[in-house]
Every structure is written in structure tokens, then in C-alpha cells.
Specification:
By secondary structure, this protein is mainly beta. It is 13% helix and 51% strand. The protein is built from two helices and ten strands. Strands 1, 2, 3, 4, 5, 6, 7, 8, 9 and 10 form a ten-stranded antiparallel sheet that branches. Strand 5 and strand 6 form a beta hairpin. It is globular. The N and C termini lie far apart (48 Å).
Length: 171
């Protein structure tokens, strides 16, 4: 369970523009299984027979330098395998790590063949000064790519700053 929550927290922060290098970083982080996940909330409802765990009210999950906050977090486990199927965070979702930040109305981690994280509703990802804004951002963890979509009224909005090479001076 800790590995999946950590995957959710870490992967959500990596919807940035240098995906290949960051995907390697995610995989390196996942191999460091010794960091605990600390979850606090106003309330926990555990439905063991259903494999459902609901964290309600001012939810905060921390692992290492990564923090996730939301109003609600639901964790659904597969009753046969004990593996986590989905993690759904609802209302005021904020994920931070160093200079990276992702926000949305809702975030869903799905433990599919490729691992998928979806940010829904006012999705924004910041990495340094780079920004992606759209209605929905879907990141496929193992395939190392993301898709941003917006409805017909709005468009995907991206701001990318060039990467400075070593030795380059600010002008």
C-alpha cells in the first residue's frame, strides 16, 4: 500500500516537460521502499470486507519530501490480491515536491497494466516556471507520457521556458 500511495504522490509531480529523465527518477524513488507514508485526516472509515478505506476531512499524506492534501481520499484494494486498485482524492487536491506542484479538483490513481494518474477539473502542473493548465491531465507512468485535454470552451495552456545549458549566463 505504501508503494502505491508513494507512486501516486511521486508520479503526480512528474507531468513536466523533461519526461524521460523524470520517469527514471520515479522508478529510482519507487525502489526506495523504506520511507513510510504518514496519512492524517479528521476521520477514517475502514470497510475491510469491501477493501475500502475512506480518509475524510483535511487529508494530508506525506512521504519524504512529497506531500498530498485533499478533502477526501478513498483507497480501494483488490480483495483477492490485497493490491490497491485505485486511489481517489477529491476536492482541493494539491501535490507538492520541491519546486513541483500539481493541483486539481480530483485526482485518480489506477493500478492498471501501465499505471495511470488522472488530474480532473482545473488541472494545473507547475515545474519550476513551466506550467500546464487544462481540464484533464492523464499520465501513464510506465509508458512515460502524458495527455492534456480541455473542453470545447477552453484550450490546453502550456508555458515552457528554455533550459539553460551549463555555463550559460543570464542576460
Amino acid at each position: 500500500m505504501k508503494k502505491i500511495i508513494f507512486c501516486f504522490l511521486m508520479s503526480s509531480l512528474f507531468f513536466t516537460f523533461n519526461m524521460r529523465a523524470q520517469a527514471t527518477n520515479i522508478k529510482q524513488q519507487l525502489s526506495k521502499n523504506n520511507l513510510p507514508v504518514h496519512i492524517t485526516a479528521n476521520q477514517l472509515k475502514a470497510f475491510y470486507k469491501k477493501g475500502l478505506y475512506e480518509f475524510i476531512g483535511s487529508v494530508k499524506a506525506v512521504r519524504g519530501d512529497t506531500t498530498l492534501t485533499s478533502e477526501r481520499m478513498n483507497i480501494q484494494k483488490d480483495l483477492n490480491t490485497g493490491e490497491i486498485d485505485t486511489i481517489t482524492c477529491i476536492n482541493n487536491v494539491v501535490i507538492t515536491q520541491k519546486d513541483k506542484k500539481a493541483t486539481a479538483d480530483k485526482a485518480i490513481y489506477e493500478n492498471t497494466k501501465y499505471g495511470k494518474i488522472t488530474l480532473i477539473g482545473h488541472a494545473v502542473v507547475l515545474s519550476g516556471k513551466n506550467i500546464i493548465k487544462s481540464d484533464r491531465i492523464v499520465y501513464y507512468i510506465d509508458k512515460d507520457y502524458a495527455i492534456s485535454q480541455s473542453d470545447n470552451k477552453r484550450r490546453v495552456n502550456v508555458i515552457i521556458y528554455p533550459t539553460k545549458k551549463k555555463g550559460e549566463k543570464n542576460e
